[in-house]
Design a protein that fits this description.
Strand content of chain A: under 5%
Oligomer: heterodimer
Low-confidence stretches of chain B: 1-8
Shape of chain A: globular
Radius of gyration of chain A: 26 Å
Number of helices of chain B: 12
Order of helices and strands of chain B: HHHHHHHHHHHH
Largest sheet of chain A: none
Mean pLDDT of chain B: 84
Number of domains of chain A: 2
Helix content of chain A: over 70%
Distance between the termini of chain B: 62 Å
CATH architecture of the largest domain in chain B: Orthogonal Bundle
Structural class of chain A: mainly alpha
CATH class of the largest domain in chain B: Mainly Alpha
Mean pLDDT of chain A: 83
CATH superfamily of the largest domain in chain B: MetI-like
Helix content of chain B: over 70%
Number of helices of chain A: 10
Order of helices and strands of chain A: HHHHHHHHHH
CATH architecture of the largest domain in chain A: Orthogonal Bundle
Largest interface: A-B, 59 and 58 residues
């Protein structure tokens, strides 16, 4: 078979891939209602323009600023409280899930099948916890706990608890398991084997991942405000519905500051751990 | 006395003074957070509250599995996938274009300006972009697509720019010095070097965007999320539980597919 172009020997394949991609993507563009002109059509552009024009100057009167400051503190508190709950859920489940710590994996013996079954059940539970987005948990929980931070804390705790357990178990299983196995073989319990056989090796990675998740929790807690779960997000949602550009600008700036702060803290702690 | 010391030695080593201090600070922070929030946990505190909670949760069962609604759920799932795919595609294109100045190809000032823009795009969360885009483009999946595209082009642009800066400049430079014009030199000398990295970043972001696209609808930006929010506000709990199950299934599917794909890419 001769190449179609003397310049590019892979031309046939490249064109084929491009045509194939276009055939697959074309209907998806229409499913996504891709229509750049809708940005200009109707009075969309006018509404958006007026809204954006009000961003400058941002609203800076003391009463509003203190409201935003209180919401910012609430956002940080939601993230931290949510992570505390997530740790309470994730750490024990992660220990249960880890294969290096299972006495039943050392060798054949009674309870091996039951042990595996239990681990499977824990894994299914965790998939449910982290497979449902935190925003959906928050939406459901707001109905139970009413508007406010309680549902955000619980939603973060449940979703991030599931994630922490999975990642903790992965970290524990990727470390050398000989010390823990030796301890288990000598008759130590699961907790002792973890504390003396695995933790010294894994502590840094575990802590560093936890801090990273806290940083994610700060970002997530603002978003959860959009379903009424407190913090800066709830404030921003209200201001956006009223098309209050100057308020949105202030809240957005504070949020960006908060994320940058969480970023710095997390990076500094992780550097300190390394 | 010395035997007692020997007995406590491992525990003492395990819980060094610095770790103890850190733990104390963390406990204090956790306590302070709960104190600030003063969470109202009455709904699950007493027996009456728990019964009420049970009654509420039982309204989610059984899920609505009628053929008509299942078909609408499937359409919602397809819309979610379309939003994530088109959003990521647009972001990859915009990210690649912005990465050129951001990797210092048009001077230090251009680099700083492009990086500032990328930072701004990336720092605003998808859901906030979605709320803004619903204002700009109206309710529906197009707003979600734009929101994902805006946030993700910030992320990908930064990653692409870093990849371009770290890639060896040799092949492109050689072509340039041999008299090749700038565009072909870039396409043939640089792009093949960074393409695998670009592709793997894009796939990784697509995975994240697919998860994100399921909930963007909460602010009216289409997909499963918009249906869930709608059914939820009409108190159609059985339908809501079908939609939540669909989200869960989608998430499990993504997990499995991305593990497969990653193994495949690694083998190559």
């Amino acid at each position: 078979m001769s190449a179609r172009s003397p310049r590019d020997p892979a031309a046939t394949r490249r064109i084929g891939v491009a045509v194939g991609a276009a055939v697959v993507l074309w209907p998806l563009f229409s499913v996504a209602e891709f229509d750049p002109f809708s940005l200009l059509g109707g009075n969309n552009a006018a509404v958006m323009g007026a809204f954006l024009a009000r961003f400058l100057p941002p609203k800076l009167d003391p009463a509003f600023l203190s409201l935003v400051a209180r919401a910012a503190v609430e956002t940080l508190a939601i993230a931290t409280a949510g992570m505390t709950l997530a740790l309470a859920i994730g750490a024990p489940l992660g220990l249960l899930l880890s294969r290096s710590l299972a006495a039943s994996e050392v060798g054949p013996g009674p309870g091996r099948g039951l042990d595996r079954f239990l681990r499977g059940m824990v894994r299914v539970l965790l998939t449910g916890l982290r497979g449902i987005p935190e925003l959906v948990w928050a939406l459901v929980l707001v109905r139970v706990f009413g508007l406010g931070p309680a549902s955000a804390v619980l939603a973060l705790g449940l979703t991030y608890g599931g994630m922490l357990a999975k990642v903790y178990a992965e970290i524990l299983d990727s470390a050398a398991d000989t010390p823990a196995r030796a301890l288990l073989g000598a008759g130590a319990g699961r907790l002792e084997a973890f504390l003396f056989g695995l933790l010294p090796d894994c502590a840094q990675e575990l802590a560093s991942y936890t801090i990273y998740r806290w940083e994610c929790a700060v970002r997530a807690s603002i978003v959860m405000g959009f379903v009424g779960a407190g913090g800066l997000g709830q404030l921003m949602d209200q201001s956006m519905k009223m098309l209050n550009g100057e308020e949105v600008a202030t809240i957005l700036a504070v949020f960006l500051l908060l994320v940058a702060l969480a970023d710095r803290v997390s990076a500094a702690v992780r550097r300190g751990l390394a | 006395m010395s035997t007692a010391d020997a007995g406590t030695a491992p525990a003492a080593r395990l819980l060094c003074r610095r770790c103890g201090l850190a733990l104390a600070v963390l406990c204090l922070l956790a306590w302070a957070s709960f104190a600030v929030l003063q969470l109202d946990l009455r709904p699950i505190a007493g027996a009456a509250g728990r019964a009420e909670l049970g009654a509420y949760l039982s309204r989610f069962f059984p899920p609505d599995l009628s053929a008509g609604f299942l078909r609408r759920t499937a359409a919602g799932a397809l819309e979610t996938i379309a939003i994530s795919l088109i959003g990521t595609l647009l972001a990859a294109i915009a990210g690649a274009i912005l990465a050129l100045p951001a990797s210092g190809r048009s001077g230090a000032a251009g680099r700083a300006a492009a990086r500032l823009l990328l930072n701004l795009l990336r720092s605003v969360p998808e859901l906030v972009w979605a709320a803004l885009m619903v204002l700009a483009a109206g309710l529906g999946p197009f707003a979600g697509t734009l929101a994902l595209a805006l946030h993700t082009s910030g992320v990908l642009g930064r990653l692409f720019a870093d990849a371009l800066e770290n890639a060896p400049a040799g092949p492109e430079q050689a072509l340039r010095e041999a008299g090749t014009p700038a565009l072909p030199a870039f396409l043939l000398g640089m792009l093949p070097v960074v393409a695998p990295q670009f592709l793997s970043y894009t796939l990784y972001r697509w995975e994240m965007n697919l998860r994100m696209a399921t909930v963007l609808g909460f602010v009216g930006a289409g997909g499963l999320g918009q249906m869930l929010y709608y059914e939820f506000s009409l108190l159609h709990e059985p339908r809501a539980s079908t939609l939540i199950a669909a989200m869960l299934a989608l998430s499990i599917l993504i997990d499995a597919a991305s593990a497969r794909l990653r193994a495949l890419l690694q083998r190559r």
